[in-house]
Design a protein that fits this description.
The chain is of the alpha/beta class and 387 residues long. The protein folds into 2 domains: 118 residues, Response regulator (Rossmann fold), CATH 3.40.50; 245 residues, P-loop containing nucleotide triphosphate hydrolases (Rossmann fold, 3-Layer(aba) Sandwich). The chain is 39% helix and 18% strand. An 8-stranded mixed sheet has the order 8-9-7-10-6-11-12-13, with helices on both faces. The protein has a 5-stranded parallel sheet with strand order 2-1-3-4-5, covered by helices on one side. The longest helix has 18 residues.
Length: 387
């Protein structure tokens, strides 16, 4: 059983401009944000704010320490704020007078925090106002089975590891989210179990922040981050959906490639995930029941998204000869009215060995036909598509 991983993995940093003349405040804020390995904090004296942003770069967030509010009485303070355009401004100060508060409102401050500063409030404010303008938009890759046991979880694990293993940087920026709270199979397949008790967070989803995300994650040697929790009652809890949406928001904020294992059951987040995914893999088996469910799911996603999303249809567990499965490739294309259906070989011995050893199929035998099929499909649908 894996212990909770408290190590923060480096990832792409976003710029935060911190203006303060308080040495202790500057040290505390910069230390806390830098420790998350998400932000690059540029520290300047308070008066430098009046000069506007540097010509060569524009930060994603500005934190302005106003102290006792004296700066708010300086001529041109409102005009100086305009130089920063729409960059979110988080103001921090002691108690302000009514006149100082009016000036702060005219400056269009995005948020205000009271000194002495609560570190958790700071993190929540920065997370809330960070629009992600400094980073590349995250790519969301969703795997969903047309029927039970079709194999989407194995393919999701393999896809995430395929992306993460390309380099140290890719590993740090790749995440797998297991939305099967009934069994948490992504973690179970690898014999990794999350020991964190979600009970205190489900009822208060706002407690989940970027700092806590690093505490509750599971990790792979490649650097891949995995979020997998076994909590069968979560879909039925009043704030369960709020927790899931916050989890997904934070991983989208933190990682470049997000692979999601999405069960084919109606939950409050099911359509939302399908609506925001960039790549969707529908995994089905070559039998009538699975094909019927696969066609229904494909039609639903097309009605939901039109042609705005790339959908890959995966015929899993096929025998070496197509006619041995009673369905030819051309027949499958007619059923789905879609070309280029991918196929993955049936290899029960390989998959059983991988499960029993709690490793991925590629780690058992990378030359197996099953793994060659996956590698070819991922290269075409994920690697080439990202170029």
């Amino acid at each position: 059983m894996n212990a909770i991983n408290t190590k923060v993995t480096p990832t792409k940093r976003k710029q935060v401009a911190l203006f303060s003349s308080d040495a202790n405040f500057k040290r505390d804020v910069a230390t806390r944000l830098d420790a998350l390995a998400i932000y690059d904090v540029r520290v300047s004296e308070t008066g430098e704010f009046l000069k506007g942003p540097p010509a060569d770069t524009r930060p994603g967030i500005v934190i302005l320490d106003l102290g006792n509010g004296e700066l708010l009485g300086r001529p041109g303070i409102v005009e100086a704020r305009a130089l920063w355009a729409t960059v979110p401004l988080i103001a921090v100060s002691d108690e302000l007078s009514s006149e100082q508060t009016r000036v702060l409102v005219r400056m269009n401050a995005s948020d205000w925090l009271h000194k002495p500063l609560d570190g958790k409030e700071l993190l929540n404010a920065v997370t809330f106002h960070d629009t992600g303008n400094q980073g590349t938009k995250s790519r969301i890759i969703t795997f969903i089975s047309a029927s039970g046991g079709a194999g989407a979880t194995t393919l999701a694990l393999s896809a995430a590891e395929h992306l993460a293993s390309k380099s140290t940087e890719r590993g740090a920026s790749t995440c797998l989210v297991d939305l099967d709270f009934q069994s948490a199979n992504c973690g179970a397949y690898l014999n990794q179990f999350n020991q964190f008790d979600l009970g205190g967070i489900i009822g208060q989803p706002e407690r989940l922040d970027v700092e806590l995300m690093d505490v509750i994650k599971l990790s792979r040697p490649s650097g891949l981050t995995l979020y997998s929790f076994e909590r069968p009652q979560l879909p039925f809890e009043p704030q369960g959906a709020d927790f899931v949406f916050r989890l997904l928001d934070l991983v989208a904020y933190r990682f470049d490639d997000i692979v999601i294992d999405l069960p084919n059951i109606e939950t409050r987040w099911h359509n939302s995930v399908l609506s925001t995914s960039d790549e969707i893999f529908i995994v089905f088996e070559l039998n009538v029941a699975s094909l019927r469910q696969g066609k229904r799911l494909y039609k639903k996603i097309r009605e939901l998204r039109g042609n705005a999303v790339s959908i890959t249809l995966v015929a899993n567990k096929h025998k070496r000869k197509w006619f041995g499965n009673h369905f030819s490739r051309s027949e499958l294309e007619k059923i789905f009215k879609a070309p280029h259906i991918k196929s993955v070989a049936l290899d029960n011995a390989l998959l059983a060995d991988a499960l029993n050893r709690a490793i991925l199929p590629a780690e058992v035998d990378g030359r197996a036909r099953f793994n060659k099929d996956l590698k070819r499909m991922f290269k075409e649908r994920l690697d080439d598509a990202a170029k």
